[in-house]
Amino acid sequence: MALIQCDFFSETLGLSSSMNVILPQSAPSQIGMDSKAGHAQAKHKTLYLLHGLSDDHSIWLRRTSIERYVSSLGIAVVMPAVHRSYYADMAAGGNYWTFISEELPAIARSFFPLSDRREDNFVAGLSMGGYGAFKLALNKPDQYAAAASLSGALDAAKLAARMPDLANQIFGAGNGANEVPNNLFLAADTLVQSDSSIPLLYQCCGTEDFLYEDNIRFREHAKQLGLPLAYEEGPGEHEWGYWDKQIQRVLEWLPL
Questions:
Q1: pLDDT tens digits, one per residue of 221-255
Q2: How far apart are CA 159 and CA 153, in angstroms?
Q3: CATH number at residue 22
Q4: Which of 51, 63, 130, 216 is the 20 to 30 A CA-CA neighbour of 78?
Q5: Any long-range contacts for 58-61 (C-beta under 8 Å, 24+ apart)?
Q6: Is 50 helix (H, G, I), strand (E, B) or coil?
Q7: Total structural domains within the chain
Q8: Host domain of residue 158
């Protein structure tokens, strides 16, 4: 595998940004790694892997063995920085929804041999990143074949109760958290009423996680709508030991 630490300028944000990118490499002589698969592809299948509220683009590499986990899968992994944006066009901040949903994939594909086919693109994330992953899948179903949320902060309106100052910065003092694209429940309603193909969804959460009840509510809403949702739960808190195990489950589940 190749690891690229990429700094670039975002026209959408008006500032320099960063992403880490893992690319498949044929390296059969590399000790301790299975880096054989996918190297012959002209354009790589891609997993966009999103970070949580207190993290950045380096966190998946620092807290898990994601590079080793994907080495035999022939898939690229793009890990962007979005700061504390909730993957939104912020009321008092950058347009991170436009950045993550439009500009970032275009920039990544201009730099690296990444496929733009829907069936080759997936998104996953933890906590705030789980919200971001489902936000992309539900609002941009033509771009992603599958999405996974690990302990996702799936109810944007709850942010106002937990962190009112941050919520005002992100969604404004109005009702932005309860509107599409920010409200995942409404985004799911809108998707099932459209003619768009619905991405496969994977959701997991630890039963001791403070976001467990939020996840149960979204699971039940998805079931009522008939969304193709695979759900798993078990003992676990909001911590990296749980996410390190579950990202391996996500990679097994992805339709590669």
A1: 999 999 999 999 999 999 999 999 999 999 999 99
A2: 8
A3: 3.40.50.1820
A4: 216
A5: 58/20, 60/20, 60/247, 61/3, 61/20
A6: strand
A7: 1
A8: 2-253
